[in-house]
Amino acid sequence: MDSKIIIENLIKIYGKKNFGALKLFREGKTRDIILKSTGNILGLADVSLEINQGELFVIMGLSGSGKSTLVRCINRLINPTSGYIYIDGEDVAHANEKRMREIRLNKISMVFQRFGLFPHKTVAENVEYGLKMRGVTEINRRQKALETLDIVGLSKWADYKPTSLSGGMQQRVGLARALATDAEILLMDEAFSALDPLTRAEMQDELLRIQKELHKTIVFISHDMQEGLKLGDRIAVMKEGAIVQLGTPEELITHPKNDYIRAFTQEVNSAEIIKVGSIISQTASLIIGQDSVSSGLKQMLEHNLPVMYVVDRENRPIGLVSKENLEGSLKEGSEDIKAIMKTSFPMIDISAHLKDIFYLYKQGLPLAVVNNKKEFKGMVKAVDVLTSLGQSNINLEKNNN
User: Which CATH number is 54-77+96-272's, of 3.40.50.2000, 3.50.50.60, 3.90.550.10, 3.40.50.300?
Assistant: First the structure.
């Protein structure tokens, strides 16, 4: 996967005459010692990470952890003290202001916590604003604004003032304004934290829907672990300006690096976060028209499996056979897998969460896991689910003890 944003050894120190503070940091001194010795605040402590093209990347942490500083360094609303920020291979950390204005106009859009809408302009005029700054003609920017408002479900409100809209609707306008410029990168700094819980959940769902359609590179800042786990393809958790752990939501839940991460995740329902694709235990399958009863039984014995899925030539699951079925068929002298396979079986998408699959085990069969093309990716047994959830509970107990 191609990297869209690469950050290398990024350091930010707040305060004048920060050379002494930078020297102390490079000597290994802590944030508290640097503050006490120099009066300077260490905002970012040698941060390095890569954000992939089309990824929804979440940066999390408590207040003062450095998450907002990091995202604002990406578009240079804050200038880093040291280090590099590459966007599509260009080092924007050292670009001049003229070049940064061009990047902000054409490549990066930002959505703020407090909407930042112009109350005297209509909804459409607010959405058009970035296009107007770019010099797009009135007719073209109006058309683009309406198209973008349609994406966020607000086309009927184009000619109203923002004060006529609810908080959630106003945030949709802010999101539409960022999307209207067709910027490849979307920075969202605590974008939903000012909303009530119900509206916030709706906006999270809306963002996921839009991302599925547009595939932007999104950097989302949050202090809410449940929100971060819901939205993020990957999550970086920060503390005192440094990244404590970076990984997928499943990795943070099942393999927290330390007590700080465990404390962040202790109230989270693991079944709502862990995806089926992360716990696949067996990917072997039998191919109809290619495998016989004899070869199928041989594979079962090699893999020590009581059952195996049967797929067609396009690798789509079409049936399930057991060891007993195959052994019985051999005794009868038949090599036809199709004649003995069970064609009624439970199937689930690889992106589904564990909470969505429990009812499928009522048949007593392992689940066939498929991708969006219905291709077989493996199977998941009930014990795999229980083991995964059990591991999460063990990590929680470690934190509580």
Answer: 3.40.50.300
